[in-house]
């Protein structure tokens, strides 16, 4: 018995090291977002930009990320997950260094896009690696809970680290922290992470990729620039978005190996997870955007003080994320999603209806509620996206979930920022609290969508659609090689 035990221990240690490496990649991507939010007011002053300029420093990254995640996931399944993962680490680290050297807003936005190309390769490849490393469903759910906890760590540490760096060194230093973590993750990947591929490679879909970029890009640009440019710009871009969406719906089902696997959406839990991801991350990005500007520009706090004020939200996200993973593994996704929707909606109502900004007690109560809610939502999204799909499709399925998150983050900043700009004008500190009311109602609506969709997609009927979808996908994939040679 001692021999098998000795053989099992190294295998478990290797699995844990693989999880640690994947979590390191998520850490630098998530930390980058939270640190950047704290630095926005300092960046705005040095680069002499507007609310729209601040929106683009965030959305240029999330837009490219959302556009390329599915392509990166399928590419990782095709040419090798470790290969794509290491390439992503190199590009993300290089992009971070370039961002720290950006001489102006245009260059910063461009370098953020380079970061995003690397970031798009990290999360889907890492989730696919985790899915294929942790094959036991219960163990995988707990691993995903740890993965979700890393988002909590980044949210807890990001505002404080960002505040310290911005106040002591300057906003450019926030990008330096990615360099040591990225290099360490790269070395550990070469040593511990095995190469893996899907049994059947998926072919590229350039037309589908172009349609996705056209859809997300036109929607985001129209929302951000609409307050300044008006309907003359927004209307043509809206038409482009509609045409791109129609093109995707008509073209993708005709392909044998589409970029977006629309068959996944026959699974009600999977479809629900994408809606929940968009709603939850739109609420998160809007929450961070509003509070960063309010605390620093309206209350006049330093970056560090603003980070410390948001610490209750971040700390509770950190605490609740692994708890949510355990709940998903033992009891399913419904309870965490109900808690998430109720708590996040409660936070939105406090700010929208009761002016939580004017009371320290209400302010921190809102932060606590949002932290608990967001901490509960991530593990159900990820687990639902990958657990009901064939392991050969893990990269594509997790990429769709990641794309939904980034799409939500992009839309959240675009919509919330535009609503705020429309209410405050060029001087965005004037009338900030009143102008932010509609934005908080939007965040509340997103939270209620998490609650309603979570309840609707976690019952017995929904789980049965997931089983049928997985069985049909496996049967279709098993027939394809035979059909192609007939």
Structure notes:
By secondary structure, the protein is mostly helical. The chain has a single domain, classed as Growth Hormone, Chain: A (Up-down Bundle). The protein has 17 helices and no strands. It has helices at 2-47, 51-79, 81-100, 105-133, 137-168, 178-192, 206-229, 231-251, 268-298, 303-309, 311-331, 334-354, 360-387, 394-424, 432-435, 437-456, 460-485. The radius of gyration is 22 Å and the shape is globular. The termini are far apart. Residues 1-8 and 481-486 have low confidence and may be disordered.
Low-confidence stretches: 1-8, 481-486
Strand composition percent = under 5%
> Can you identify the CATH superfamily?
MFS general substrate transporter like domains
Q: What CATH architecture do you see?
A: Up-down Bundle
Q: Roughly how much helix do the residues carry, as a percent range? A: over 70%
The number of distinct β-strands equals: 0
């Amino acid at each position: 018995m001692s021999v098998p035990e000795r053989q099992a221990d190294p295998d478990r240690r290797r699995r844990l090291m693989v999880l640690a490496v994947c979590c390191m990649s998520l850490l630098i991507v998530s930390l980058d977002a939270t640190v950047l939010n704290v630095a926005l007011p300092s960046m705005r002053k040095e680069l002499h930009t507007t609310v729209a300029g601040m929106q683009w420093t965030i959305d240029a990254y999330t837009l490219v990320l959302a556009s390329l995640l599915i392509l990166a996931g399928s590419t990782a399944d095709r040419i090798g997950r470790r290969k794509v993962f290491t390439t992503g680490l190199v590009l993300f680290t290089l992009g971070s260094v370039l961002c720290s050297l950006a001489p102006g807003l245009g260059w910063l936005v461009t370098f953020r896009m380079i970061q995003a190309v690397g970031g798009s390769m990290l999360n889907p490849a890492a989730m696919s690696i985790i899915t294929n490393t942790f094959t036991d469903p219960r163990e995988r759910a707990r691993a995903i809970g740890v993965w979700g906890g890393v988002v909590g760590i980044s949210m807890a540490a990001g505002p404080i680290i960002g505040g310290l760096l911005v106040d002591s060194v300057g906003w450019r230093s926030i990008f330096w922290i990615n360099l040591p973590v990225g290099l360490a993750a790269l070395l550990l990947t070469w040593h511990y992470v095995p190469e893996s591929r899907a049994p059947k490679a998926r072919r590229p879909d350039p037309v589908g990729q172009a349609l996705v970029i056209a859809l997300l890009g036109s929607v985001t640009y129209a929302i951000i620039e609409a307050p300044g440019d008006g309907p003359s710009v927004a209307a043509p871009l809206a038409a482009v978005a509609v045409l791109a969406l129609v093109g995707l719906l008509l073209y993708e089902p005709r392909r044998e190996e589409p970029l977006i696997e629309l068959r996944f959406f026959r699974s009600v839990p999977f479809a629900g997870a994408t809606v929940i991801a968009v709603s939850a991350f739109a609420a998160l990005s809007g929450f961070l955007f509003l509070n960063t500007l309010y605390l620093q520009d309206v209350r006049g706090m330093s970056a560090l003080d603003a980070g410390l004020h948001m610490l209750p939200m971040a700390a509770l996200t950190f605490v609740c994320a692994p708890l949510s993973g355990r709940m998903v593994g033992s009891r399913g996704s419904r309870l965490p999603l109900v808690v998430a929707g109720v708590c996040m909606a409660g936070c939105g109502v406090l700010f929208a209806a009761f002016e939580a900004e004017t009371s320290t007690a209400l302010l921190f109560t809102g932060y606590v509620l949002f932290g608990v809610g967001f901490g509960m939502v991530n593990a159900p999204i990820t687990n639902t996206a990958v657990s009901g799909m064939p392991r050969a499709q893990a990269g594509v399925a997790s990429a769709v979930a990641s794309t939904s998150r980034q799409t939500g983050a992009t839309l959240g900043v675009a919509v919330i920022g535009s609503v705020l700009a429309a209410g405050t004008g060029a001087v965005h500190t004037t009338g900030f609290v009143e102008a932010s009311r509609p934005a908080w109602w939007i965040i509340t609506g997103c939270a209620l969508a998490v609650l309603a969709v979570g309840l609707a997609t976690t019952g017995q009927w929904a789980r049965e659609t997931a089983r049928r979808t997985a069985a049909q996908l496996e049967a279709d994939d098993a027939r394809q090689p035979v059909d192609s040679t007939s």
